[in-house]
TrEMBL record:
Membrane-crossing residue ranges in chain numbering: 12-35, 64-88, 100-119, 125-148, 160-178, 184-201
Domain (Peptidase S54 rhomboid): residue spans on this chain: 59-197
Primary location class: membrane
Subcellular location(s) per record: Membrane
Keyword field: Hydrolase, Membrane, Protease, Transmembrane, Transmembrane helix
Coiled coil: none
Family affiliation: Belongs to the peptidase S54 family.
Protein name: Rhomboid family intramembrane serine protease
UniProt source species: Paenibacillus macerans (Bacillus macerans)
């Protein structure tokens, strides 16, 4: 089962440095938000890089990146942080550090871009933050492995992944204030980015 963590903290940091940096960045930015108005404060979120489709903010494309490291409330941070901590490490070991970082960040940007485009077309005012698109990008990469590289994933891990995806899809569609397009965009982005990486950026 690749989704069970057996490492102690020292080994975890040595084996998964990019995962540790991503998790630390999310925690640090949450603390920054907390001491500068709160992670639920709209003005604070906009100041530090939330995605918005209104006012001057809609033309600031760097927000597609910065929003990945911001979260609304501790529960939001905890759910994404737990997924990064537990489910992402096997992908870092498989791809290598910089290719894994490329997939994570690329998936998050794809999810945010598709989400922004959808809300822009609808005309609905929208503000978005969170690492969910990138997390679903990791799931998308694992889905590629489960379907097309079955020798790299055991049966128990495949069942766990499918269960995660089923629950995630249902939750994304029924829970209020969930940016479901960022989730689906990240999932699709991760699936195709992974396929591109293993073909174009082959690991030695």
């Amino acid at each position: 089962m690749i989704f069970i963590r057996y490492e102690n903290w020292r080994s975890y940091i040595r084996y998964y440095p990019v995962t540790c940096l991503l998790l630390a960045a999310n925690i640090i930015m949450f603390l920054v938000l907390t001491v500068n108005g709160g992670s639920l404060n709209t003005d604070t979120l906009l100041k530090y890089g939330a995605i918005a489709n209104f006012g001057p903010f809609e033309h600031e494309w760097w927000r597609l990146f910065t929003a990945m490291f911001l979260h609304m409330g501790f529960g939001h941070l905890f759910s994404n942080g737990f997924a990064i901590l537990v489910f992402a490490p096997p992908l870092e070991r498989l791809l290598g550090h910089w290719r894994y970082a490329l997939l994570y960040l690329g998936s998050g940007i794809v999810g945010n871009l598709l989400s922004f485009g959808m809300y822009q077309q609808s005309g609905e005012l929208h503000l978005s933050v969170g690492a969910s698109g990138a997390v679903y990008g990791v799931y998308g990469a694992f889905l590629y492995i489960a379907l097309l590289q079955r020798h790299l994933m055991d049966e128990s891990s495949r069942k766990t992944l499918y269960s995660l995806l089923i629950v995630g899809v249902i939750f994304s569609l029924v829970a209020p204030k969930i940016n479901w397009m960022a989730h689906f965009g990240g999932l699709v982005g991760g699936f195709f980015i992974y396929g591109l990486i293993i073909r174009v950026l082959k690991r030695r």
